[in-house]
Records
---
Amino acid sequence: MDNSFDFLISPNILKPKRFSPKLRIAILASGEGSNFQELIYLSKSNKLDIDIKILISNRPEAGCILKAKKSNICFKIIKNSDYEKKESFENEIINTIKKTDVELIVMAGWMKIMSSKFVNEFKNKIINIHPSLLPSFKGNNAINEAMSCCSKITGCSVHFVEPEVDSGRLIMQAALSITNEDNLETLSKKIHFLEHKILPLSISQAGFMLRNDLKDND
Ligand code: GAR
């Protein structure tokens, strides 16, 4: 894509930390999976020391499933509509993750709101990417809402997941201008471009904090 636009990433971290052994992660995704694909690429090219143990998706038709198949990554479809209660749906995800023995859970386009029971089960071990400068524009329509409000600046954020939706300690953010020429498609592409930069770096930051039992970013 045309990436000749100005942006700001904070904190200004340029390289991921190295992990040996690699950081074991699970990905939760509901959509196309472009963030997931970027993580696969970085992992396979040894640019990010992660071992993607499993992809869990709630949508059998989601693009992320195809990407997992193509790259031989273990995946599991857990459809909410197959369960009468949200609790049973979440329990299945919890059990799957526990069996997989991962250190960090990455929500990369996961479009289900999870209960506090789920979040507390993996306290400080879940991170989420969101297409806005949080705390602005929470929820599932963030890019559209930023445009509709005539915001001049928007971006994307990665944060630790807390029971309250799209809240929790921020790890990294990227900001860009919304120009008069932008429409939903162009802005979404720019935000995705930035997401692919900050999600890998945030995974490395979160992994470093987890492995070293740190509470802050340094
Ligand atoms: C990303 O833009 C991510 O920020 C967003 O879904 C998209 C998934 O794209 N997540 C949310 O809106 C969560 N509230 P991808 O499937 O191409 O990675």
---
Amino acid sequence: MPKDNYSAEKIQVLEGLEPVRKRPGMYIGSTDTRGLHHCVYEIVDNAIDEAMGGYCDTILVTLNDDGSVSVEDNGRGIPVDIHPKKKKPALEIVLTTLHAGGKFGGDDSGYKVSGGLHGVGSSVVNALSTHMIAEVYKGGTVYRQEYKKGITATKLTETGKTEKTGTKITFTPDAGIFDSTTYLLDTLMTRFRQQAYLTRGITIAIMDDRKERPEEDLQHPRLYRFHFEGGISAYVRHMNESKEAIVDPIWFEKDVEAGFVEVAIQYSKSFQENVISFANNIHTAEGGHHLTGFKAALTRTINAYARSQSILKEKEDNLTADDVREGLTAVISVRLKEPQFEGQTKGKLGNAEMKTAVESVVNEKLAEYLEEHPAEAKEVVGKCMLAARARMAARAARDSVIRKGALEGMTLPGKLADCSSKNAADCELFIVEGDSAGGSAKQGRNRKFQAILPLRGKILNVEQARLDRMLGNNEVKSLIIALGIGIGEVKDMTKLRYDRIVIMTDADVDGAHIRTLLMTLFFRYFPELIEQGHLYIAQPPLFKLAKGKDVRYAYIEEEKDAILKEWGVTQQVDEPDVPEESEEEDELAEGEENEKKAKKKTARVGIQRYKGLGEMNPDQLWETTMDPEARLMLRVTMDDAEKADVIFTTLMGSEVAPRRKFIQTHAKAVKDLDV
Ligand code: TSJ
């Protein structure tokens, strides 16, 4: 065995792997696709640790055709020397002992990614694999060892000579453990792209060698490389791709006592804030002390600079934290020895020392940047000042809506067909697109507890619409008055007049637009409604299927296919062949009538594709979309609404080119609007 500066003695032996197979969820979070993909991340993270230590620069992930995954790096190779007490190679201990990875010493780079979020190690992946092969290239020799379900299956053997150094792990996830063992390139790529951004200069390549690839993956080439010389600076550039940047990214890094701090910032003309933070390459979705420190420093430094340059006059108030965050895109990346992850999803950095660390680095480096780049500084501060003015104007607009409402004595809008019940818990408000669909809904509803408010799609034609301006629009005002809770400072949730607010729009592009607009409006001005689960999206059927007297509705394509199959229909039926309502029969010309009768005799199957709500008569609308006993409704989550907000901003934003690109690349998403 080769001599290594590493000593196998340092490995702490903790536990066997039996508990892992008994309760896999405890170790990898879940056994669904998330857990499955997590296994790949876990192995790759070990290679990234080697890269962060400066010992390797390339990682190749291969999806093999036999269902296994290989991860190979060009690092030093996992040590293979024999542990004096356990009498086993270090490699074997790492892969067959729980938690050994984390305590694996000798290497003092310290900032470990692996064993991070769930505290799992590569041994957990081994335990959940029917087969694992480890190959180590070290000191001119190829070493190999195999395992089955985490148990050593072969002795460590020297299988040949090699020039290269590195580690290659191949594992086959156990189909008896995971719900599915199909990897999605798309999911893996997202993660590897992010990791490559965070570790400047490394290459993560992914190769898809599967003969049968999942439908979603066909759009991707089989080989993909991620390599970013620009690191997180390139990351913010990428995040701002569809936005109009006002300056080049501002980037700085510094070694500090608490660890290491790296920040990239770029302002754009958008109104969105997009700040993401990481600790040891792990995304801290819930933020934490590093993010708090960043925000404090940003507000302080920009205000100090604006004052020193007299851009902010003496009598003017400081810019608020919100003002300096409008149009801001930033990546905060810290590395520290013992990261503490807290919060519901363990996505919050709990190390308090990181607040001061990030705050002082950003204070120092950002001030330095502003001093040295007066032209850029002017742009950035100007953007923040604009945000402050917009904030004040928005408040004025909100207030004026309230005042106008108050002037009208908050009378319910004439367009509203209210319900008779005044018990809000029973009441539903359907926001319907267009007067004709509104008419059907009014006739079809149960007037006891269902109210209808028709809105005209026209409100959407305002391109570049600032949402706050839209509040002054009569259509939107009607909606706000109908809700009953007011807006802005005088909002009172206890006055909500309907327990369920249902957006009911056509399944076409216009419908998708108006739904996006409404969701964004709710997201920005009435987030409580969404948080408390009051907002829904109606799901009108896409198809009406008829076979003789048997009429069925299908809400998705697959459902239609299933019904047709049930009816024994194999080939596609002509779409217009729909046995329609009986009253129409009188109007049929004689020839057509005969034809229709002929159809009835053979009980032909007809399919009607609904293009809009207007095509349904009131009874059908009730039966399929409004009847609480039969309908399907989606409850809007904050996540959905936030996505709508992003789409809205992109669709309504001031830049035409990225908007067109967005509509092209997301044409399907916009159409389906599963926002
Ligand atoms: F752990 C694992 F199997 F999941 C795994 C580890 C998977 C992959 C793809 C790579 C690795 C890995 C581990 N790559 N590089 C290393 N390096 C070490 O384990 C290593 C090498 C040398 C020394 C030393 O002090 O000489 C120390 C360590 C930790």
